[in-house]
From TrEMBL:
This is Transcriptional regulator, group III. It comes from the Bacteria. GO terms for molecular function: DNA-binding transcription factor activity. One of its GO terms (cellular component) is cytosol. InterPro entries: Tscrpt_reg_Rrf2 (IPR000944), WH-like_DNA-bd_sf (IPR036388), WH_DNA-bd_sf (IPR036390). It comes from Caldimonas brevitalea.
């Protein structure tokens, strides 16, 4: 979106990311609430960036999206009746907490500007042209 000449619609963003426009609108609403994007309605409307990429980190985005679960592994139940599950939870608690803390720390170190620079370097390396619809193609 940073290189777009104008607003990008939810439909265009959804196509680029291989998802449904409703998913994009839900995500973008959280980002808008934190001032990272803005939306314009009507013909020629869509989503645009409203932030300085050098000042926003992946942790900021994570927070804006409601702090979703970072790790797929975790407790199935906070107070399991199963003694084996209790033992596994006890054994993994510390490691999971440490892993999440490290991941959050790293997310706080990666700016959107750094991601943009990496993307552009990869684009140059593979000799591709950049369009939003094709930026996510493998």
């Amino acid at each position: 979106m940073a290189e777009q000449g104008g607003p990008a619609t939810s439909e265009v963003l959804a196509k680029a990311m291989g998802t449904h426009p409703v998913v994009i609108r839900r995500i973008m609403a959280g980002l808008r609430d934190h001032g990272y994007v803005r939306s314009e309605k009507g013909h020629g409307g869509g989503w645009t960036l409203a932030c300085n990429l050098a000042e926003v980190t992946l942790r900021d985005i994570y927070t804006a999206l409601g702090c979703p679960s970072l790790l797929a592994i975790g407790h199935r139940s906070e107070t399991p009746a199963c003694l084996v599950e209790q033992a596994v939870n006890a054994a993994l608690d510390q490691a999971l907490q440490e892993a999440e803390a490290r991941l959050l720390l790293r997310l706080g170190q990666v700016t959107l500007a750094a991601l943009s620079a990496d993307f552009h370097q990869r684009l140059v390396t593979c000799g591709a042209t950049q369009t939003l619809e094709h930026a996510h193609a493998s």
